[in-house]
Amino acid sequence: MKKYLTSILVTILVVGLLSGIFSLQAGNAQTPTVKPEPAQEAAPGSVTVSGTGTAQASPDVAFVTVGVQTEAEEASAALAQNNEQMDQLIAALTEAGIAREDIQTQFFQLYPQYQGPTTPEGQPELSGYVAVNTVQVRVENLSELGNLLDIAVEAGGNLIQNVRFEISDQDALLEQAREEAFNNARSKAEQLAGLAGSELGSVISINESGISQPFPLGLGGGDVTAEQAAVPIEPGSQTVSASIQVTWRLESGE
């Protein structure tokens, strides 16, 4: 009888012990450890604005294309006449103070010329040959440009195709336009920051959104005579513009 009771008590103790272990494990499984996430910093405020700037200057160099066109029944004759007149033209230009390195051949052509048929059934007939030779001349003394055109025509030049004005140091002009564009953008950003109760901090990014450089100003041309060449030439002025987009960091105004 005692052995029977002892066995029952042992059994009860074992069952109770096992039940406690299982309960503890279940409790641990149901309450996992939670780690707090680190606090995230708020992204700093910023302001992005665009700015434009311009810079203006007078051209200081001109490029003029002059040349000779000759016609003859034979190709050799047209070419010989053209060569002779071009030699005279180039010699006159150098005597007027133009350096040889500022004279560059632009175009040369020798081609047949045909006369149209007099009847619908007729065929074009060869009437001769045309020789064309032009050079581009760089002129730094713009006040003498008109006189130079006179000299070219008097020396046998009968083609003036265009006169183009440029600014030799366009990079310096563009730098001025960029500086003005940045100051324009900063002025806008400072106003917006003040309205928001903030102050401008450091620049986050700068993007150049556009550049407008002066298109070379060209004057028309064509066949000329000595009477037509003496025309006044005015270079005028040219403008460079720049557009940028700038982003500034905003800081507390307190």
Describe it.
This protein is an alpha+beta fold and 254 residues long. The chain folds into 2 domains: 41-59 and 169-217 and 229-254, Translation Initiation Factor IF3; 61-166, Protein of unknown function (DUF541), domain 2 (Alpha-Beta Plaits), CATH 3.30.70.2970. The chain has 5 helices and 9 strands. Helix 2 (75-95) packs antiparallel against helix 3 (145-154).
Order of helices and strands: HEEHEEHEHEEEHE
Radius of gyration: 44 Å
Low-confidence blocks of residues: 1-6, 21-43, 217-230
Tell me, rounded to a whole number, the average pLDDT. 81
Fraction of helical residues:
25-40%
Strand percentage lies at 35-45%
Please write the CATH class name of the largest domain.
Alpha Beta
What is the fold named in CATH at topology level of the largest domain? Alpha-Beta Plaits
**Number of self-contained structural domains:** 2
Number of helices: 5
Termini Cα gap: 90 Å
What is the β-strand count?
Answer: 9
Oligomer: single chain
